[in-house]
Amino acid sequence: MTSGLGDGKYLLLTTYRKDGRAVATPVWVVADGDRLAAWSATDSGKVKRIRRDGKVSIGPCDIRGNPTGESVQAHAELLDESGSDRIRGLIAKKYGIAGRLTLLGSRLRRGRTGSIGISIVPSTGG
């Protein structure tokens, strides 16, 4: 079902505004055990929406956010500092030099706590 989503380069992460409108964003994705994980700036809109309500949908996409497969409902939660550090390590490993440079740039601009890991668990029911 979602096992292949962690293998792809991009994940279309859709969060929901208070009024129910969907906001889809392509993010880098890594497998994290039986979960998926992504990374984002702490003050981004998607992080604010996840903080308010963890209901999301996820699916494969290209770099521009064009879906390349079916999406599924999921639940996202924000990670603490150690969890976020672990996800940054997984991203650096998967995305190589591009990942490491992006993470370094983020750390230089925002500091260590300026980005946060996002843990994503696909829903078991419809």
TrEMBL record:
Keywords: Oxidoreductase. InterPro entries: F420H2_bilvrd_red/Heme_oxyg (IPR052019), PPOX_F420-dep_Rv2061_put (IPR019965), Pyridox_Oxase_N (IPR011576), Split_barrel_FMN-bd (IPR012349). The keyword Oxidoreductase applies. One of its GO terms (molecular function) is oxidoreductase activity, acting on the CH-CH group of donors. It comes from the Bacteria. Residues 10-86 form the Pyridoxamine 5'-phosphate oxidase N-terminal domain. One of its GO terms (cellular component) is cytosol. Pfam families: PNPOx_N. The keyword Membrane does not apply. PANTHER family: HEME OXYGENASE HI_0854-RELATED, PYRIDOXAMINE 5'-PHOSPHATE OXIDASE FAMILY PROTEIN. This is Pyridoxamine 5'-phosphate oxidase N-terminal domain-containing protein. It comes from Umezawaea tangerina.
